[in-house]
Amino acid sequence: MQRLADILDGISLMTASIIRWLALMMVLVQFAIVVGRYVFGVNSIAVQESVLYMHATLFMLGAAYTLLVDQHVRVDVFYAKATDTTRRRIDIFGHVVLLIPSMLVLLYWSWPSVRNSWKILEGPISVGGIEAVFLLKSLIPAFCILLVLQSLSLLIRLLLPGTSASKADA
């Protein structure tokens, strides 16, 4: 089971190592947009939309890695002062009752829209924009699948005796 958890963690680590460069690319493109518009008077809707696409990709595909390294948003009302055993129980509850079911519901309800978008190769958001909304919508099922896989990895670690659930604990 430990090996399976390591493989699932590897998916998040590999995804993060690839998409982290989008943050730098996004800043550079945004800088070029500002310089182009205010210095040279040049503007492109497609280039502006590319920042939206990069931001969405960074957020949606980076969420599983964020969960892996325990940097996700957590409501610390009870968690902060809880014992390790109570924290483990809260985490197990969160994965089994909240995270995994909500991702499966989101995947189920978003799939028809994603499928239809691919079927018609849905065009740009704005006139003159990137003609690939179907790719943007594909981030939704990818987000759900990556989070479910990472959640299963953390759940395996939480249920195995003597293991740490997150890479941040290691």
TrEMBL record:
Q: Which family does it belong to?
A: Belongs to the TRAP transporter small permease family.
Kindly give the InterPro entries that the UniProt entry links to this protein: DctQ, TRAP_DctQ
| UniProt keyword Ribosomal protein, yes or no | no
Kindly list the organism's lineage.
Answer: Bacteria, Pseudomonadati, Pseudomonadota, Alphaproteobacteria, Hyphomicrobiales
Residue ranges annotated as transmembrane are: 21-40, 52-69, 90-111
- Under the GO molecular function aspect, what terms does this record hold? transmembrane transporter activity
Q: Which residues form the Tripartite ATP-independent periplasmic transporters DctQ component domain?
A: 26-159
Q: What is its main location?
A: membrane
**Record flagged with keyword Transmembrane helix:** yes
Subunit organization: The complex comprises the extracytoplasmic solute receptor protein and the two transmembrane proteins.
The protein's name: TRAP transporter small permease protein
CC annotations in GO: plasma membrane
Q: Which of UniProt's keywords are assigned here? A: Cell inner membrane, Cell membrane, Membrane, Transmembrane, Transmembrane helix, Transport
Q: Which organism is it from?
A: Hoeflea halophila
Topology relative to the lipid bilayer, per the entry, is:
Multi-pass membrane protein
Domain of life where this protein originates? Bacteria
